[in-house]
Amino acid sequence: MGSYYDVDAILTDAQKVPVTFEIDVPGLGYLNGNIGGDIKAGTRVDLPLWLGEMLAVSQPAGIAALATLDLPTALSQRVINALKADARTVDIRAQAQHFYAIGTRMLELFEEEELVDVLTETFRKRAAEIADQAHNSRSALGEGAEFMRGLDETERRLFHAAHDNSNAVKKWFEASSKG
Question: Domain named GINS subunit: which ranges (predicted)?
Answer without folding.
Answer: 75-173
